[in-house]
Amino acid sequence: MSATESAQQNDSGLAAKDPPKRRRALLIVTVVFVLAALAWFLLWEFVFSTRENTDNAYVGGNQVGISAQVPGTVVAVLTDDTQHVDAGQVLVKLDATDADVRLRQARSALALAVRQVRGQTDSASGADAAVAARKIDLSKAEADLKRHLPLVAAQAESPEIVQHLRDAVAAAQAALDAAQAQAQSAHAAIAGTDTANNPAVQQARANFRAAWVAAQRNTIVAPVSGYVAQRSVQLGNSVTPGQPLMSVIPLHNLWVDANFKENQLGHIRIGQPATITTDLYGGKVEYHGKVIGLGAGTGSVFSLLPAQNATGNWIKVVQRVPVRIALDDKELDQHPLRVGLSADVTVDISQDQGKVLAAGPAQPAAETSVYDNIASQADAEADKVIAANLGASGTSR
Residue 88: left (phi > 0), alpha (psi -120 to 50), or beta? Predict the structure, then answer.
């Protein structure tokens, strides 16, 4: 057999074996694709379809603006950007000269009002004594007339004398009437109340209270604990009420506003758990939170110039709705965040039977108690002024 014939036989043998190999290879490829499709289906069914994800999310928090409540000149700035302040800590001081003058005037006016009411009370007591004296005079005149009337009937007394006695009784009655009118006038200013609660004293007390509060407001304090940002106030500035001076940002109670596309909101509900990562820690730190509310409208609706879709020149754009997610305070303490950081949010939507809209009002978003004692302290100072000027007639009526 020649070499050519031998080669041809080898080729024909290989050709006879190729179809089974190709079928086996095709079967393997088919199995791989089927398994991959099955794996993708299972992954979608049990993983991807139970969550919604977005990287259009940002950390939010309360930005507490600090402003003056009274006009004045800045004499001290006691904090700066990035510094931590506690609730009630003094941030800025204003020149208190004018406020002190007004407070002294109000203090003097309150003391004067108390003394004037005391004088009115003493005048009323004097008027009561005068009424008692006039009553005695009238009784004496009536007794004299009664004694002389039998003598006139017996012609033992002159009619002129009796007439004089009658005139004396009339004069005593007129004097009594005048004294009673004066007593009523004196009591009208103090009737129904003691000195401390007299309307004149209460008016002066209110003016003193307002002056005392205004004097205290020359010291500007932090309403909440947090970190100072955006300080614009400088020493010597003349500030007006409402003028922004700085901000205090609490980094403890933060949240994330995740802007989901409108076609992602179908299964998002209040109370669903969420996981959040940020670039601040390279995505290695995972925060856990829950959905607490969905926005009432898309971002474009609340923009300065909202789109007018009725003009005809309109292109449909997928809108986004903010979904607010509360964060765990303990995790924030361990790994602090900053307001405005971008975040990646994944919401577990496997349980989608919850509410879309909040059922009722929730707890306050923020509150402070640093101003609660100002009114009580003002009342205590007013009480001291009143007590110092009452004397022994403080409870007289």
Answer: left
